[in-house]
Amino acid sequence: MLKALAIACAGLFLAALIMLFHSLIVEKQKKELEAEIEEMDKKIKSLNARNAVLERTIEMKERIRNESENRIDNLHDGDALGNAVGILSKRKG
Predict the structure, then answer these.
(1) How many helices (H) and strands (E) does the chain have?
(2) pLDDT at 33 exceeding the cut of 70
(3) What does the alpha-carbon distance between residue 39 and residue 33 come to, in Å, rounded to a whole number?
(4) Residue 79 and residue 4: Cα distance in Å, rounded?
(5) Lowest mean pLDDT among 44-48, 62-66, 77-81
(6) Angstrom distance (rounded) from CA 15 to CA 17
(7) Do 74 and 86 meet the contact criterion of CB atoms below 8 Å apart?
(8) How big is the chain by its Cα radius of gyration, in Å?
(9) How many Cβ atoms sit within 10 Å of the Cβ of residue 83?
């Protein structure tokens, strides 16, 4: 009877150890996963910031290109003296 009780206690003790070990492993995996998620969030924020800068750069270049195309179109309309007078009057106005 005592032997059976000792075996049962040993079995319960081993079950408790296994459960403890399992919970420690799960907790470690959870912390590692949270660290990976945090690192990915940082990378995403960095990429979003870089993307915003690139979008502003593209918008600025498009605006400059459009202004340059308008200037070129204006130069081809009429004579050089008329264009110069037109540009000066636009600046004063």
Answers:
(1) 2, 0
(2) yes
(3) 10
(4) 113
(5) 77-81
(6) 5
(7) yes
(8) 37
(9) 15
